[in-house]
Amino acid sequence: MEERDLTSGILNQVPIEIAISVGRARPIVRDLMKLRRDSVLVLDRRVDDPVELYIGDKLIARGMLQELEGEQAGFLGVRLTEIIDLRDAL
Asked: Where is the Flagellar motor switch protein FliN-like C-terminal domain positioned along the sequence (predicted)?
């Protein structure tokens, strides 16, 4: 049986969801129960800190958030600054 390259063919057509992590919060339950509309939950990162990109629970890249311009003005994007070797990550 002939071995196939997995990066070609039908696998290229499969959509995949990437989650972007901008930070974490660790409130205690008492403080969590006090949250209301317009409450602010402080994250463990600053606005200019890198974000992490995940497929499932696997880190695949890091990057910086940026606001898009032109036709996509107002939307957020991620400029990739580091890409993990996907052969190892997946």
From this structure: 11-85
Could you give the CA distance from residue 52 to residue 22 in angstroms, rounded to a whole number? 7
The residues, any chain, with a CB within 8 Å of residue 66's CB and separated by 6 or more, are 76, 77, 78, 79
Span 30-73, pLDDT tens digits: 999 999 999 999 999 999 999 999 999 999 999 999 999 999 99
Question: Going from the N-terminus, what domains does the chain have, and what CATH number goes with each?
Answer: 15-89 (2.30.330.10)
Q: Judge contact between 90 and 58, C-beta under 8 A.
A: yes
| Helix/strand/coil (H/E/C) assignment for every residue in 24-81 | CCCCCHHHHHCCCCCCCCCCCCCCCCCEEEEECCEEEEEEEEEECCHHHCCCEEEEEE
Between the two ends of the chain, the Cα-to-Cα distance in Å is 25
